[in-house]
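User:
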Amino acid sequence: MSLTITELDATWQPGVLAFLRRSPYRNAIPLSNVTQLRQRCTVVLAHSHGQVQGVVSHYRDLPFPGLTFAVAFDAALPPLLGALGERVPALRERPLTTVVPEQRARQLARFVGVEASALEYQMVVEPETLRPCAAPGVRRLRHADLPAMRALAAQGGLMAWRPEVLDLGPAFGAFDGEHLLAMATIHFATPDVVEIGNIVTHPEHRRRGLASACASALARACFTLAPRVYLLVLAENTAAFAAYRKLGFWPAERYACMRFRLR
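Assistant: Predicted structure:
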């Protein structure tokens, strides 16, 4: 199949959305990069005979370089990776990170140099399965809380923290007086799906259900924005996995968090 590679523009936006919406959970991150996060992303697509065959994108606001993708067939991936590397040369200079379904990780591994990989679970929840969990002092976070949120993110070692989270959607924190002890925010909120993230508790206040209460309140708020809500958790984090199961999340798909280099 002959492919044409081009950057995403208004002409191709409807086709890309239709392509990605075939599988909203699996394509949640690519969907965010072509909708809510579009202005901070470089997006390249492959098409043939008027049909989108693949998309690859790079979100510039993460604290580490990375990309995500969705392709209709394996052979569409190398030209997309090459085109993205040409448009963002810095992606060729250091290791990249991606979090993708395991099947896509296997696709990617054929064309890049893999340095490390860790198993994660995509855990989803629905309004009917969510089991609310409450704790004293939980409220919606505001911009005035950003300094405390930033400090808690550093104390908890959050990898994907960025201060723009409150511009993207709701977040909830658990307080003891004026002290922020735990929080849960989102990574993005599109009309199709919301990813919950940055779930963290101060190291001195763990195992009190504070982060679970924040995630519970956040999930309820997210269902007013989209019909699908999920989070990602490392398979080795058995305590977090059990806590999310108790809230009504269940593991829908195995993901791989990969570090790799473009060839």
